[in-house]
Amino acid sequence: MPKGSNTPVPTAALRVELGWSSGPGVPDADASALLLVGGKVRSDGDFVFYNQPAHTSGAVRHEGKRDGGGRIVDTLLVDLARVEPAIETVVLAASADGGTFGQVPDLYIEVRDAAQGGVVARFDSTGASVETAFVLGEFYRRQGAWKFRAVGQGYSTGLEGLAADFGITVDEPQHTAPAPSAAPPMPQPPPPAAPPMTTPPPTAPPVHMPPPAGVQPPPPPAPPAPPVRLSKVTLTKAAPAVSLAKQGGTSGAMRVNLNWQVRKQFSGWGSKRGRAVAMHADLDLDLCALYELTDGSKGVVQALGNAFGAVQRPPYIHLDGDDRTGAVASGENLTINLDHKQDFRRILVFVTIYEGARSFADLHAAVTLQPQYGAAIDFSLDECTVPSTVCALALITNTGSDLVVQREARYLVPERGVSPQRTVDYAYGWGMNWTPGRK
């Protein structure tokens, strides 16, 4: 599509892919969406991005990145059938992290039918220079139907400037002003004489009258919503670990989210390794966690055996549910209670294939750790080149004064007759006893 053109799109679930070519010196980029009424958001909740990955309506969510074949793709899922009637426009934007879009080659936005996979619209953005944020496209209502417009409007003020332009309140970093240079003291005139002290007459205490019968007092004003935090941390092979304390994640609940895309295809008969892997629509992945507490107790949180855990009592880890699609509004989630961080010795978050595939090959998954207070931590899984049915995602270790998150992204291959859980136990030395189970 040329810049400024538009095309009708179905009122359905659409997968929006922001893509570019990777390479040395190419900065990272992030996709985001803003739901607008009259050209502005109604509240900061109408901003969907890496630190706020899902809209409350379930209509828009950020699915995360995948890296393969020299190309990086960041994905949003927009279900136009679920967009609230008041919303007129869904803006689709990108922001550069650590550089400008003049350094990002082959930038494009592509809209696909989430169910069928066919391309609905595509816009290739060219001519970027110093821009650090772009509105690449937008969905907008016209006479009861939806259209997609190729926009290509750049900003030199990054995601912060773009968000503020649409009405988002941004949490700006605090800067301390430098102290002014010292100047010689000026002579001060003598203070005026104090007036004579007088004792004020006593006053009666204020009388609080109750409201008339049947009249309810007005509710107290709601506290202002906290500003949106734009900071984030992306873990890579070169920088695989981060301190939760340094990112502000020292208390509250931390959500660990896994999202994936189901590929209804074969990854290639007669491949280099002489194997074939089928990905089916009924692919069922299980997000799990091995834990070891400071009192020496160990265990696992997983859907298998209904070991969903608990947040307010040991192990202070809870699996929210069992998602069999990877494409619902929230994916699979673990909740970790950071108010009990002193009770954790280590936590290993991992994922297993329960059914629907024999390997993680051709599976594109993203992991996000979102503390209630603090920056989001995310990473994508590397391409799987081994017949793996279990992948260690992240290791969280108590150092005594902090929790450190280590990106693992480690595919493991179980030996014949050995379960995925036992395989990850052996690899990390957990030392538990395992028995067969089912969901």
TrEMBL record:
Q: List the biased-composition ranges (Pro residues).
A: 181-227
InterPro entries per the record? Stress/Tellurium_Resist, Tellurite_resistance_TerA, TerD
Residue ranges of region Disordered? 172-227
Ranges for domain TerD: 3-166
Domain of life, source organism? Bacteria
Name the Pfam families on file.
TerD
State the family it belongs to: Belongs to the CAPAB/TerDEXZ family.
This chain's protein is named: TerD domain-containing protein
**What is the scientific name of the source organism?**
Streptomyces guryensis
